[in-house]
Amino acid sequence: MGWRTTRTVAGAWAIVILSAAGSTAAEPASSAEPASSAEPAAAATPAGAAQTTAPAAAAPAGLARFLDPATAPFIPIPEIDTAPGSGLTLGVIPTVLSVNDRDEIERIVAPDVIHSQYFGWGSRMRIFDYPSPDAQWSVVGGLKERVEREFDGRYAAGQARLGDWSFAVDAVYDRSGIPRFFGLGNATPYANQSSYLDNQAFLDLSAGRNLTRALQLGYDARLRYVDVLPGVLPNVPSTTTVFPALAGLGSEHVLQQTVTLSYDTRDSAVIPRSGGRYAAYGGFVSGALGSSVSYSYFGAEARRYWALGSDVTLACHAAARYMPSAADAPFWALSSLGGDRSVTDEREPLRSAVSDRYIDRNLFAGGAELRTRVAGFDAFGTRVGLELGPFVDTGKVFSTLGTSPLTHVHAAGGLAVRGVASPFVVGYVDVGFGQDGAAVFSGINYPF
Q1: Which of 39, 80, 88, 400 could disulfide-pair with 117, CB 3.0 to 4.6 Å?
Q2: Residue 299 — φ and ψ, nearest 5°?
């Protein structure tokens, strides 16, 4: 565990803040009258009367130019990162959104200058590009004065499954000082909190054979190096000291191979409103193939979406992951519950707790959101919608295959605020409440 997604705050605040700012001045898209419904001007003007044309409004100048979404060269977005365990990070993101001739966002460029409570001043560059519904690429890189470095480059093609094959490649280097470990099991107390320095890199290659538009057989190979070092956070004990016998401390390297069979009927992979995605997978890591450890795993996941109206979507998901052979597995390879993301074969969300709050061999999790569009407005050549989504997350981890997945579950509930610019971009701020208190997350894309 411990790898934190680098595709987080860049566009989230841009889209969500724009949505909040515009929602008081614009009606939802569904209430707008089409331009063709207006009567021609000539019909309302008596014959022979002089026709006048209202003078065009002058373009804003000075500071007003930067504050007007129609003329600003970039969006000066304040950055406030308060994710659990990360400390307070403040900064500014001069975000540039590019749109295509269909008024859809096709590129986000979002550099920033930040100050981290733990690691000092830093800067990042992010580029997210959506050339078509079938392909996308992104590059994210940055560093801080102390400890932390990050790079994530990704390219994916065939995402719409229109051809015979789909491909993706992801190269990541991440040196993070904020990961936490609380112990193994479903009942680990918060007082057991420790921290470690996670230094890791991986290269992930995946290919999928599209048997039909909906049915795909996929293969994924991930070559991964992980070095778990003593923690660097003040007033938080180091994992290497509190749990000195924990499997996975120090350096390990693995070649992880996974086969996935998925059936996908969603109307959109990014902003779904109907249909579902169902997947079953299995994989292994073997010392016989050069890995420093060996373990195996299998699981299944279901995501289902119902359009309850033109502006309301009910989204549900459930997932299970089991590790029949895990005696040699490092703690960061076990099943994980916590944080704000559902990542197939990796982790499930509990949006009241820090990422990887509960870790063990096996996992069961589920959740639901009621995504409701409450406003919309035009900005930067595209249509942006403001969405509210009350949600609930549940789940548990356990060590033996025979344990009931439905008892002693953890639960979190809260409200999501989303900015949606179809068809590619969703920015979110999710606020959750649960056993560990309250937590705030922000990022890009839906959690599931």
Answers
A1: 88
A2: -175, 180
